[in-house]
Every structure is written in C-alpha cells, then in structure tokens.
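## Example pair
The file below holds two records. Each record gives the amino-acid sequence first, followed by its structure token line.
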Amino acid sequence: MTDLSAVVEASLHEVYAVDAETLGYRYVSAGAVRNLGYSRAAMLTMTPLQVLSGFDPGSFRSLVAPVLGGKRDRLTFRGTHRRADGSLYPVDVSVQLVVSDEARSFLLLRAVLVEVAERTRTAQLLLRLTSYDSLTDLPNRVLFRDRLEQALAQAKRHRQFVGLLILDLDRFRLMNDTLGHRAGDVLLREVAKRLLRCARDGDTVARFDGDEFAIILTGLHSPQEASSVAQHLLETVSEPAPIEGSDVYVTASIGIALYPSDTTDPDGLIQLADTAMCQAKALGGHVARFYTADMNAKALERLNLETGLRKALDRHEFLVHYQPQIDLTSGRVIGLEALARWRHPVLGLIPPTQFIPIAEETGLIVPIGHWVLWTACLQTQAWRAMGVPPLRIAVNLSARQFQHQDVAALVSQVLQETGLDPHCLELELTESMVMQNVEESIATLRALKALGVHLSIDDFGTGYSSLNYLAQLPVDTLKIDQSFVRDLPADPQAAMIASTIIALAHSLNLKVIAEGVETEQQEAALRAGQCFVMQGYRFGRPVPACDMGSRLVEIGRDARVP
C-alpha cells in the first residue's frame, strides 16, 4: 500500500472509485465501510445508487454528466446515505473524473458527514476570524506576528535582509470625523488593495489597528530595496481615491526597520519600525524614514511628555499667558491673546510647539482647550473687577474642538459660567481647519456667531481658502501668519502676500492683525501696507495673568474693546 493510500484508508471520510461505464464500485475506503456498515467485499458488488437515497440511474447520470463530459472539473452536492441497517445520514459529496493509465474512466467520490463538514467549516471560520482583519481581509496582528517569525527564520538560513514597514495614514482621524466612519472604512479598504498591488511575491501585508498597516519585505539583498518599495507605497497611497462621488486625497507616513541590522527580535523589529514611523509623522508625513539609534531617545522623550500631559490637568500644571494686541493708530491695547503654557514639575516651562501636537494627536487638546477657554474668560472678568475696561480676549480653538458637534453649546456654557460678555470673546480658528469641510464649517461658525462672539481666521495665508468661500464665512478678522511677517521687509514675496491679505481683508470689511511682529522694520512695512493692529515681541511678550494685570491697570484708561 502506498503512503497516499494509507492516508486515505486512515481517513474518517468516505472515498469511492466508481466505474464511469457500469457505475459499479471499484474501490471503497475504510471510512465508507465503517460508516455504512457493509463489508468491503459486499460494497464492491454494489453501485452508488444503492447507497445514495433518492437517485435512479437516469437522475444520477444527469447529475454527473458535466463531469463526465469535461464541462466541469468537479461538482459538489448534498445527499443522503443509507446504511446497511436502513438508517439515513446526510453527507456532502464531491465528484471528479479520474482517467487511469489504461484509459479507463472513473468517478472519484468523496463523501463527508455533514456534521463533520460543518465542524470543519466552523473551524476554518474561527481561524479566519482570529487571523484576518474583518474590514480589509488582510492578515491581522496575530497572523502577521507568525509570518514575521517565519520570515526571520528563513532570512537567517539564507543570510538575507527582512524589511519591516509600518505605515500609518496622515490625518486619517480628521478625515474620518469629517467624512464619516462609513467613508473612512471605504478608504481603508481602498488603501489595503493598493498596498497589496505594491507587494511583491512572498511579502505580507497586514492591518494592525485603525489606519495602521504593516508590510514584511522578504528576500532583500540590500536596504535600498526596502527604500524603493516604501517610495512606491507612498506614491500609490497618495493617488486620489473616489469616495462617495468625490476624490479624496490621503498620504501616509512609513517607518522602516531591518533584520538583522537593527535587531533580530520580532517584537523589537515592530517597535523600531513604529518608532521610525512616528518620526516620519513628526516631519509632516508623506515620507518614509529608516530607524536610527537616536530615535529611541526621541521616542522616550515623547512618551514621557505624553504620560505627563495626561496628568497635567489634574495636577494643575497648566497656566495661561497673555499677549497684547496693539492698535498703532491710538497706541492702545485693544485685546489679548490667551496662550496655553505647561509648567512641568521636572522639565520646567515646556513650549507649546512641543506639547500641543501631542495633545492634538491624543485628543487631550479637547479638555485642555476647554480649560484655557474657561480660564481666559474668567480672568478677563477678574480684570474687569479690578477696574480694567472691557477687553476682547482671543482664544484658539483646536480642530478637534471645532469639529465637536456641540462646540457652540460648550462656548455658551463657558460664557454663562464666567459671566463674560460674548462681545469680549474672540475665537481663533486656523484657515485649514475651516476649509476642511466648508459647508459644515459655515454652519458651525454661524452657530458660534449667533452667541455674539467674534471670530478670526488665524495663520491666514498658509492654507487654501477660496475667495468665494471666504466671502461666505461669518468671520470678523484675518490674522497674517507670522511666517510672512518674519521675512519682512527683505523678502518681496512675503511683502506681496502680506499686502494682498491686508487688501483682501479691507475689501471684505474685515479687521486684519499681523502676528509675530518683532522689529521696527517689520512694523514699518506693515504700516506702509495699511495694517495697524499688531501683536508680537515688539509690543509685548506673552506673560502670566498677574504681570499682564499690572500693566492693564496702569494703562486701564486706554484699554478698550474695538
């Protein structure tokens, strides 16, 4: 008996070879003998018609005709087998044609008890559920980890590189919140298809969590090969994706770690690639970065900041600094901008450029932003009680706050709790934030405007505002981004952009404020362009409330709300 026939004989399934002409059994397996209760010798004198219930010669030949005629390689059907004792049991039967060396044709029948087949299908389904992502049908983290171990073992034997790429979509959460989760799921499936198209034979593409994917590159002979694949992935992902009738543009950040150059440990390789991906994101996204040793220090620093940031509100480590806005025609302080600061118990005062991006990414910006708004409004009321005439306080709204469906209600609640006149509050929103979803933004801005607060577009000139949409926005002020002010008056292009923004604001009957003014030359250039409201180090640095309060009391008679 050959090894293959031994396997068939040991199987619990029923296997039959049936003469295509006579329909007589020419072979029956041990499983068939056990299940049906006949002896093997008896069965070799029988035909399937004596076992299959409900068939006659005509109906059986009609059933298997497509196989006998070569129109189908295989057919399957559900039938009922009759045991020697007359009892019945359901089976799933598969039929295929086999031609012997003597050119004799046989039908190979394989029957599986339905309950066994169902258990097998259930086991396969469970394996699929535990090993594959249900949305994209890509391997999940569990299967990916197993594939990675296999890839590293093979690379060790053949002395090759393995590249591990961690890919994360840029600003996907913002897109998901804007377009909706259904559109977000469609985009994730599209990205999965694109990654598979870029993958080479033998590579594994998996989905980890959310918008994070991972790719195992096997058989690499040099790191440059991983770089080439990563660049191809970046270009492919960034192509426009048709989502619900519109083209959506998305980019990705990729981190790359190499075996055995960076580490020989599978989990360590994943961690290093993830560290490199975070570095790529920190550089603005749409870029791939290889892991380097100094990234660990940066990653640890960021982790420590994030850990501290999560506790900072409860520990009362945040404070608000205030920077004056000056009307140069009168020399008066006409407003203040409230700026969040974090006084870390060990690291001291941490600049917002370090902690605000982390707060945005983690969602902590929402409670922090709410606290800044409430504190600034309350402080403005406190200054009023000290005899300072009403001033307008400008507070930045983050993208996450602005996208909150109840942002107008939250602002209204703060105004009620602090007692601040809405006319004394100005909310600053970035240009890109407002233009992300213009129709919804206009509705939100109108709800805020109905409260009586003032609205300004911050960092104007850095985004992509359409003049048509800008004219529809119910805003009061445009703020010239400091990146244009910084290069005045030496840079003609910066001067042209600044003067264009000023002229645009005047044509739309909007106020205009230049921020980041530090030198006399910058001030003069802006004056020449007819901008007369400025803020920056030339007029005052951001200072704590106590220091600003003393200054406001001294100049109280000249402070006013425009």
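Second record, same layout:
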Amino acid sequence: VKNATSATQRGTLYLAVRPFQVNPPWQFLNTQGGFAPIDSLSYDGRRVRVNGGRTLIPMTRPSAFGAMSFDQGNLVDLLRQSRLPSALKVSDALGAASGALAWHLTLPPKSDTIIDVAIPLHDAGPSCLDVGSCGAGWTTNSLSTVETLWNEKLNRVTLQLPRSASRVAASIRANLAYILINRDGPAIQPGSRSYERSWIRDGSLTSTALLRLGQYDEVRDFINWYAGFQFDNGKVPCCVDARGADPVPENDSHGEFIYVVAEYYRHTGDRQALERLWPNVSRAFAFMDSLRLSRTTSEYRTGDKRVFFGLMPQSISHEGYSAKPMHSYWDDFFALRGFKDAAEIARLLGKAEAFHYADVRDQFRRDFYASIRLSMTRHGIDYIPGAAELGDFDATSTTIALNPSDELANLPQPALNRTFQKYYETFVKRRDNPKSWDGYTPYEWRAVGALIRLGEKKKAHEVSDWFLGHQRPEAWHQWAEVVYRDPLKPSFIGDMPHTWVGSDFIRSTLDMFAFERESDSSLVLGAGIPGKWLTGGESVGIQGLSTHYGPLSYGIRQKGAEIEVRIESGTRIPPGGIVVRSPHDREPSQVRLDGKLINQGDRDVIVRRLPAIVTFRY
C-alpha cells in the first residue's frame, strides 16, 4: 500500500473472503458451474479457515477479523461503513458465508508498507507460524526460494529469438510451467478442473515435451506411477483418477505406455528403469498382440471386414468416435509405435523375445498399410483417412503418423502429402474468412510439427502465427481446449490453460529447431527456422535441448550474404549424422563445413564431428 501524497494518510485495507462465482454454468465437465460455496469461516488469531480445510494465513498480523452468514446481510455494505461483522466464526447452510480481515494503516508522506498473506494450495502452512517464529523476512525469503526453484526448472533449455518472435519463447516457458502446475503428485494432467484426471494418451505426449525440456524426474515418476495401474492381462488403462483405473477400452493406451517408457530411456539412458519396467512393457505388448490377432480370423480375410484385418479393434480413444466406437487409425499408429519400441527395448536388453517382437512389428505394419490403401480405395479418397470404416478426413489425428510414430518414410507419400495439403487449404479458408468458423481445438498445433517434418516450413509458420494470435488472455501465453472466433461467446472451453494443448505447442515449436529422424537415424537441425528471423541481424539459437543423442546447443547468425550455423560439442553423432538445414528456401551458391568447401546436397549439410561451423553463402 503506497501513500503517494505529501501528507500522512490513515486508512484501512480490507481483504474479503467471499463465495464468488468461479465457473460459469457452461463449464459443465466434471464440475458444476456456479459459485464456490463457503459453508464455514473462522479465525483463530493465526489462520482463517475456509470450509474447515483451506487456509488463508495473514503473515502480517491484522487489526481485526469478522465473519457473517448470508442471512445477516451483505459484507460489502458493512465495509463501506468502515465496519466488520463481530463474529470470529460462522456457519452457513446456504454456502454463502463471508468475512474480512482488516489492517488499520498510518502511512507517512511518500511511504509504503507491505501486507503479507500466505494462501497454501496444500494442507500444510508455514511451519514457523505454529511457534510464532516466522519473522519479518519470512515472506521475502520464501518468495525468493520459489523464484529460484522455478527459474531453474524453466531455464534448463533456453531459446534465443528475435524480438518479433519473443512470444514464442515466452509461450514455451509459460506452458512448461502450466504443465508442472497441473501435475497432481506424479500424475500428469491436462487440467485442474474439467480434466482432473490423468490419461496415458495426454501423459505420453506431454512427457515428450517435458523430456525435450530436461524435466526427466517428472516423467520417470509419471511412468512408475501409471505402471502400477496396469491390469493383470497387460491392458494399460486409458486414464486414472481418484477412483482408480478406468476400465473403458481405448486401444491407443498400450502403445502409448510402451512409447513413453522407450522415450524416457532414449533421453536419459536410464537402463535400470528399462529393466525394471520390462515386465510392464512385455505384458502390454502381449495384450496389444492379442488385440491384433483378434482381427486376423477368417471373418476378416474377405468381404467388408477385410479392411479391418490385423488392426486394433474399434474403440473410443478418438473423441470424435465417442458416440460409436470405430477402427481408428489413431489407435493403430500408436500401436505401431508401441510394437516398434517394444522390439527395440527387447533388443537393447538382450531378451529372447526380440526376434518375435520384430516379426510382429513388421506384420502389423504390413496389415495396417494394406488397410489404409483398401479404405482409400473403398471411399474413393486421396488422403489418409481417420478411421477404416469412415474414410473421414482428420489431419490432426494423422499427425501421429509423423510424430511420434515417425513413419514418414513408410507412408504412402501421395496420400500423406494430400492429407496435409487438404489441411492447409482448410486452414487458409478459415484464416481468410473469419465468418466461416465458430470454434476449433488447438490440438491442431500438432499440424505445425507435421508440416515441418514434411518440409513445408512456410505453411507451418502461417499456421503457427495464426494459433499464437488466439492466446486468451493474451498475457497468459496459453490456450484453452476450445478457442472461439468470438472470445465472449458463452461456451464450453475445457480447462484453461489446457496443458495437453500446451505440450502440442511445445513439441511442434521445438521441431523447428531439431527433431530425430528414424528413417536414417539422423538429427535434423533448423528445419523450421525461417529466414525472416535472421534478417534483422539478431541471432537465433537454442541451448540445452534434450535429444536422443544428448543435449544440443547451436546458434545461427546472418552476416551479409552468409548464414553461419555454430553447433557446440556435447551431442553424440547419430549414425546418420547431424543434418543442418539452411533457413533460406533457395539453394546456396556455396557451402562450407569448418571452413572447407563441400558439395553435399543443396540446402542440407551432414555433420559428423562436433563442434562444427556450417556456412551457407547466397
């Protein structure tokens, strides 16, 4: 509280505790819209207790406190008269109790004072409060401790971007923080209200974002916790909440679990964890294999059911099919990822099952791609469908084929290209004709990463720039689950921030800087960095990005007609090398590697030793 005048001022600061409306009625999922009830309110001289549990702790001792029930009138009317209710404790059957703390202040001219209040989001309050030993510096020291903790977590990976792209870097930090805040112990959750539960689907992809940003412990804890809910038959539950594991069959879950186990190992090299989780992986593999085999009986070898041969059975893992289960290719891409990773884990651990796992992987891939081709023929379409029986267009779902399934080299290329060309056409129509759309889900961030991996950098940034314009509130640097053209429209928005959406943003944006390419075991750098980021003479780079080959740090700077890429040591060289891509879309006139003229490729240079300097001249 500041006194900006040249005279001594006396006044009272009130801090009211009231049953405000928190959720509107259209926020209906897993929580009832309406006000936050206060059934009881009390003050014992140290803590204000709300509903007997939550506490508000005035670290600066107040002058007074008072509480009242709804029947006793309006608290604000009393405060306007500089009065407080007389009761220190009150109950209200209507859930509309209210109260206030008061601090009587006398401030000399041009002075200020700070009132400290602690509101723990857990059961325990400051331990020093019980013995009255917190002292004047407790708040400052506590705040400093928390700031240090968050700065360490949020700065393990840092981006250097031009001022024009500062929102990108700020959004990476913010969404990483939101992911960590939304965690409930080891449980990774997409939200804290509507989505107060943990899905292996959301958790596996959010874990990928966390791993790339160096948050290894959180992913390890999530995997170990989720593994405890696996069913005896190997089935991995789709989600877990306070009631336990959800028994609903969603056939993407098993592959997602195996994937996150493998991905954790690829980033950390934690072989002990791999050994410990092998029984979970092998049981998940066996269950997934049994699902595959259930679609290889004679009834699936001919006729209308031939398109389902060898696939995962129908499920509702894809929310678009919740009304009626479908043979969703979303499930199959995750199953393929799981089969691939289980085979690799078995090989790494020297398990006897490794050859059998590899055979199953290869057979499943053959049957899966045969189904895609047959579905396209039956429905007369030129894109990859979302479900075998529907022939529907769902590019956001198909992104899984590229990341994390990493099947770019194996997919039918014309159909793959047409899928994302069709997505881009739909996007342009929506962008250029605002009245053509009402709302969308920002899970579409996955399309940005897909476009980058397809070499469509310009399109990727058009889509990215549009999505960045839909952060609401703007200063939060985040997205709700549903974004509406009219931000004031009273409609369901899911949780906000929605951190599965946030993880899709993080993964796609980091793909601009680097991604692993399974087809040739390489690490691709700079595929999504646009030339416009360099035109102002500012540097672009990333420090400490976690990859399958260790931490990656590099910087790019334009000097006249040359673009210089400096890659620091510390990253292991992949079998296929480090592929460095020029930010410009045209071919360079000259390329040098560590000062030596080379004739590799056009805009790609393969680096096999670090540190390295790649120079593109135009």
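Notes on the second record: The chain is about 35% helix and 20% strand. The mean pLDDT is 95.
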